[in-house]
Structure formats: structure tokens, C-alpha cells
Amino acid sequence: MRNRAAIVGWAHTPFGKLEEPDVEALMARVSAAALEHAGVEAKDVDAVTVGVYNNGFSKQGFEASLVALGVPGLAHTPSTRFENACATGSAALYGALDFIESGRGRIALVVGAEKMTAVPTARTGEILLTASYQKEEAEVDGGFAGIFGRIAQTYFQKYGDQSEALARIAAKNHRNGVDNPFAQMRKDLGFDFCNTVSEKNPLVAGPLRRTDCSLISDGAAALVLADAETAASLSRAVGFRARQQANDILPLSRRDPTAFDGARLAWDKAKAEAGVGLDDLRFVETHDCFTVAELIEYEAMGLAAPGQGFRVVRDGITQADGRLPVNRSGGLKAKGHPIGATGVSMHAIAAMQLCGEAGAMQLSDARLGAVFNMGGAAVASYVSILERVK
To answer: For residues 314 and 121, what is the distance between their CA atoms, to the nearest angstrom?
Structure first.
């Protein structure tokens, strides 16, 4: 049986257009704060893992070396950068978990960050499109929104126009974002606004409106992990009842883009490992880079049969007061989506819920929750099932 690691502390910047000039400054803002929250000193950290996508957002590479500039006590601590598209943060987290659970160390610091607003919007679209299959998808209009616009079109052709369901998802997540102090957009837009194409809510790609698309964001989040023995001596500990990664083929032309088979596999394996069903979960933080992604993820996690995801949001199941609240944080849709920070942020938000430290976002009786973070168009899928162990 492996030596299970736990989350023992965290830190989180607001997401949005931030004053920090680069990822170095963003990482500095959360690294020391996370160690302080955990009650851990830099000298006790055995490894640092860093999640930054970059790919053109900055000329500065080698981001793993930058953490020690903000926390000099980490100057000689092994530090490694991870990248896995929009699941970069979860890749860094799982790398740190592997480090501890293999017995190589007792404490690890995970830092995820991205500075996206320093380049022009058109350039941002080009950079994000590098997470698609360039041989076939490089010329898609609208960047990654264009990729998910195609997915939405295919889904609509197969199952009927689901624009209303997408608007309900957007409205839900924007309402939830009002309660999140870290969220980039803390405004309840309402269903009618999200469901209507207008000058303020134009079509962006295919059937996707502006309110169906996540935001361009700066931000950082950090987690401190510890092995079970060390975690027992600290103030709090959130354990991983299960964690699974599954991949799918990169080109959309070689799979059913509406099925998210890799995500379904990751969910099935995680639920089996944890010995739980969806009814046992109190909440899910899921990867709503676009509202159509959340819709299909309902089906991948098993909340609905293929093509029936609309029923989940129509019936209020995933509302804050529903049977299984999804994205109580506002999700990527309202919170923002700084690529490298997202997976770390999702796990930090989940840990806040489980420890009763989520403030206005707090759900009652939050004992077991899950995170789904994906890279690309459901290519790299990560599912964590989390519970408070101290």
C-alpha cells in the first residue's frame, strides 16, 4: 500500500488582469504564503513542482528555477516544471504526489501560474491552439474557442440544439462566481443574458457565445503536500481517496469529439479506486473551459446518458443547492483560466471546501468531493476524489 500524501496548505491569488508583470512575481506571491498556511518552513521542503504552460506567453522559460527567487530558502531544493496543456497544474500536482508516495521525500510544494494578458488577444488564441493537433487543426478560426465551437456543432447535430443548456451552465457558474473572492468575474449575468446573442454577448465560434467561453486570465495557486506521518502533525490534511489520469487520441478527426472517452475512463477508474459513486460526492469542480465541455462532462462522469446532459442543468442537479453542486467556485467560466494555475486552483478550492475554509462558497457537510481537470479537448484527463483526513 503506497504512502498516501495529503494537501496540508495552500495559497491563491485573485484571477484576472493582475499587476504582477510575469509568472516569477505571480509564483512568489503564493509560494511563501502556501508554506505559511501549512505551517511548513522552506528548509523542510524536499521537492518543488511547477506548472506553467507558457508556449509563447513569455520569453522566459525554465520556470522551475524561478520559485527560489521568491523563496530563497528553496535555492537548493529540486524543482521541476510540468506541462500538459490545460491540465498542466494537475500534472505538477500528480508529479509531487508521485514523489512523496514513492518515498523520495516527505514534503513538496506545488506551484501553478500563468501570465496571459501581457500578449495581444490574437496572439493568445494562437498560443492556446498549440494544444490542438497542428497538422489538422492549426487553421481553425477563433483559436481554441474554434475547436470547442466545432465540438458544440457536432454535439448539436447529433443531439439537437443545446444552446439553452449551455446558457444555464454559464448563468449557474457566473452566479456561483459572485461568492468567490478569487474570481475574475463576480457578476450574476442571469440566464436571459447568457441565452441571448447580443452586442455584449456575441457569437464567438460556431454556436458558442461569449458567455460560453472562459476568460483570459493571470493568476497563481500553490499547494503544500506532505506524507501521512508529517500531515498528522500539522493543522489540516486533505487526502486523495483516489486519483487517476487517462488520455485520449489528440486529433479530433480520429475519435468521437462529443464523447470525452478519456474523461469517462478517468472517472470510472477514480470511482472504482475510491469505492464510491456520484451520490457519495458532495461537490465537483470540473473543467468548464467552455460550457459545452461542462455539458459533455456531465455525461462522462455518469450524471446523464449521452445526449442527455441538458437534463442535469435543467433539473437543477448541479446548482449550488442541488443534489451535486458543480463548480461552486464559478468554475473556469467565472473564476478565470490561467492555464498553468487552473489544476492547482481547482484542488485548492476543493480543499477549502473540505476543510470548511471556503467562506461564502462553503457547502454544508462537505466531506467528499471531486476535481476533473483536462488538457486539450479532453485529451489528458485527471480525476481526483478528495476527503478531509484531519
So the answer is: 34
Give the CA distances from residue 327 to residues 27, 60, 79, 316, 335, in Å, rounded to whole numbers and listed in that order.
Answer: 24, 33, 31, 13, 10
- Within 13 Å, how many C-alpha atoms sit on residue 375's CB side? 27
Grid cell of 8 as nine digits: 496540508
Confidence (pTM): 0.97
Sign for the CA dihedral angle at 239, 260, 163, 201 comes to: positive
CB 281 within 8 A of CB 324: yes
Q: What is the mean pLDDT of residues 179-204?
A: 97
Q: Which residues contact 317 (CB under 8 A, 6 or more apart)?
A: 303, 323, 324
3-state secondary structure at position 294? helix
Is 289 a residue of the active site? no
The DSSP line for 47-109 is EEEEE---TTS-S---GGGGHHHH-GGGTTS-EEEE-BTBTHHHHHHHHHHHHHHTTS-SEEE
- Which of 86, 194, 213, 355 is catalytic? The answer is 86
Displacement of CA 100 from its chain's centroid (Å): 22
Cell numbers given for 290: 467552455
Nearest to 22 by CA among 201, 218, 169: 218
264-306 confidence digits (pLDDT tens): 999 999 999 999 999 999 999 999 999 999 999 999 999 999 9
Cβ atoms of residues 5 and 240 within 8 Å:
yes
The one catalytic residue in 12, 37, 174, 337 is 337
DSSP H or E stretch at residue 380: strand 380-388
User: In whole angstroms, what is the distance from residue 44 CA to residue 194 CA?
Assistant: 48
Residue type, 179: D
- Nearest Cα to Cα of residue 292 among 154, 111, 85: 154
Instruction: Check if 213 is active-site.
Output: no
Q: How far is CA 371 from CA 64, 75, 160, 331, 383, in A?
A: 25, 32, 29, 11, 6
- Indicate the SS3 state at residue 183: coil
According to the model, what pLDDT value does residue 2 have? 56
Place of cell 475512463: 265
10 beta partners = 223
Cell digits of residue 157: 447535430
